[in-house]
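Predict structure. Chain length: 66.
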Amino acid sequence: MKKIRFAENLRILRQSRNMTQTELAGLLGVDRRTVSAWEKEVCEPSFTMLAKICEIFDETFDGIMT
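Prediction complete.
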């Protein structure tokens, strides 16, 4: 069973595009604190939000979750 590494992958993808949490939050229509909470593994995005994140970063669900 693979470990879900969403938080780490999100941070790496965001930083690789020189994008701030605030910029990503703006694209997703959420507060910056929400993006921060995802990256700190405090909570996880909804399936719909995850789909938007995958679209922004041109990633698959598998790619961003593992």
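Summary: The radius of gyration is 11 Å.
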